# Entry
Amino acid sequence: MPTITPDQVRVPADVMPEARETYIENYMKATRGTGRLMLFACDQKMEHLNADFYGEGIDPSDNDPEHLFQIGSQGICGVLAGQRGLIAQYAADYPQINYLVKMNSKTNLIKTKQDDPYSPQLSELDAVLAMREAGVNIVGLGYTIYLGSEYESTMLAEAGELIAEAHAAGLIVVLWIYPRGKAVEDEKAPTLIAGAAGAALCLGADFVKVNPPRATEEASSAEHLAIASQAAGRCGLVCAGGSKADPEAFLSSLYDQIHIGGACGNATGRNIHMRSLDEAVRLTKAISAITLADYEVADAVAVFNGEKEFAL
# Structure
């Protein structure tokens, strides 16, 4: 099982001296003392509206937003990522969860053929810091950038400023970076995914969430991901979990992303929360068994099936 100690945390130079210990504490919380990130993505209620929470193939419990927090509380996650307002409504009842506030969002109603994507910042950092001062266990921020959009310059500037301010306050930052827009022909092209990883590093992010690169005749998705992980340098790379999939296939893909692709974690939403509470909790444990404890796929599947215990 990979572990790190607080003195092994690399603290960026834009973390102010008085916030250094806070940053280290937040990094250790978010990575559960492993240096790897298990991010439970709960930002889709705005990103995808209710399509990911109610309908065929989705457990009825997912329509209640509290389902997300029940999973985060009973499962094993590094951080629960969601918009500030969503977290504000439930955090008092679930104070033990490590929260990552998603600072910008948009819906999926406006398609690329209508307009290139832009995800506006929804609140100022001061509002998040006020929540932290009030006792909410906020360890970091998240922000989405659509590289290739005609609005990319605005998002890059917002993200750069936000990261500097967040680090100064001792918070970690995860960037969601997706090449998308009329100028982008292939959103999952390996070279673009590696480019997104490098852009996150240049902005100063601690972690970057990308889509797994498309497999080609020359290499598998995980092999291409290894190039992106190297391009990310000291910015940890994690892959989006995508839509709901067979648990064993998902866990196998995650294993390859880490052990072949060099990813340092995962960022999973729909694959978890579309399930019943019991099944979702078991899947968080199986995912964390691979991400945080280097379990083999068969052992992680046994955790999901309830045949093997896993705890941190």
In short: The CA atoms of residues 93 and 176 lie 27 Å apart.
